[in-house]
Amino acid sequence: RAAEPNLFQAKLREMQRFFGLEESGNVDPQTVAAMRRPRCGLSDVEQFRKTMRWTNRTLTY
């Protein structure tokens, strides 16, 4: 299933921003070069809930 063009372009702009590239939303040569760089397997950008809290409020040592 193909991604919606607007969603794809939004995520591509997010990736370009992360790498310090011009945020065109298009797959240009600079973006392709950034995609081909060796990378580790960890995510660069994490999605977190705005209200993250500990489930346990009792502090122990």
Automatic annotation (TrEMBL):
It is found in: Secreted. Residues 9-35 form the Peptidoglycan binding-like domain. The keyword Cell cycle does not apply. One of its GO terms (molecular function) is metallopeptidase activity. One of its GO terms (biological process) is collagen catabolic process. Keywords: Collagen degradation, Disulfide bond, Hydrolase, Metalloprotease, Protease, Secreted. Its main location: secreted. It comes from the Eukaryota. InterPro entries: MetalloPept_cat_dom_sf, Peptidoglycan-bd-like, PGBD-like_sf. One of its GO terms (cellular component) is extracellular region. This is Peptidoglycan binding-like domain-containing protein. It comes from Cirrhinus mrigala (Mrigala).
